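Forwarding these from the shared drive since the link keeps breaking.
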Amino acid sequence: MGIRNAASRVEDTEIIGECASGSEAIQSISTQRPDLVLLDIQMPDCSGLDVIRAIGTEQMPPVIFITAYDEYAVKAFELNAVDYLLKPFDEERLHESIDRARQRIAATNQGLLAQRLEALLQTRPPKPGRLVVRNGDRYEFVAIESIDWIESANNFVELHCGSKHYLLGETLTSLEGKLDSARFARIHRGRIVNISRIIAVHPLIGGTYEVELHNGSRFTTGRQYKEVVRKLIHD
């Protein structure tokens, strides 16, 4: 579903902009001052919360968050935004959300909305229990615990889950910030591993390491990440 096309079919709604990244969103919101923003939590260069921080809660228009987090995890968004959309959603749900946003905006002053956004920024972002990956004309749900390791692929990441592989439209750094550091470790600028899949660590000349996973995969650590591996060994 094209969100822009679906939103354009909502009565008395005018689409004044569409952005492909967080930096574009910051520029567009700052200059065009929309009445309502549909803001994705996950973007290639930053998060939706980073967009709010850059603009400032006092200047930020009311927000409908778009997220792949499960319903339990998005309670903070529900309490502090006009609404949220859980991926994947259909056009009917989008229309309902925009209508609900209109009602809440009419009943709530801007000062209170700013306070809610400020409260949201102070809330620790929830860690997802799954990732939603688009595969052709369908969405696939990938459980976090099923991931063996994650590899950078420019502005995408490749999730390796046993014999299955998924391509997710997000940078490795962005995804790293969403994952639980007690369960995943970045061992290289281009690679994150599931700690529970590590069965051995082999020291190498120069102070780096080779990490061995349960499926036989072996990865050399980056020099700047050797302390991460040392911590895993000592812990």
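-- next protein --
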Amino acid sequence: MGKSTVARALARSLHAPLFHFPPEFRRFRRAVRLDHDVAPLPRLAYYLAGALHLSSMVEEALAVGPVVCDRYLPSPLGLIEADGSTDPAVIDAFRRTFEPHVLRPNVTLLLVADHATAVDRSDRRGRSERGTTAVHLRALESEPFFRDWEASLRRAAARLGPVVEIDTSSLSLRQSVDEALAAIGRS
């Protein structure tokens, strides 16, 4: 069970559309090997542009009802920060430029798990080079990077508004979705 699985189940439970970075964004990401071959700053700019696009899609859908996002602005910001190859002041300058133009979520659910559980879940899903990004492979292979990325995501999400952290390490999919629904009810 991963974050995307919980997001899909949550969207079904809420009868809400599920948003992720657009398919065109993900195709381009794979085609140019964005996470493998592109330097951090242009990669961050591309991710932030994707977050702006995603934000406009979400804003339009909110006119009809609730939405669920599987990844959002904290994802690229946390990733580049955790990578450690870019000066934090530069990342902050990028963030300050883009953040005012991104719709703030009512609540961000930060689903976390201990490293061993994340590795086990990935292995059970059939981790592959094609299906797993370079960053995710690095996180699975390095617990310190995994923890740094999680801490960076936590900081990036907190800047956008309320965050509810759910440790899914010992939870089933149903329990994780129930926790997420309860968290949304409390926000």
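The chain has one domain: 3-186. The first strand starts at residue 18 and ends at 19.

- D.
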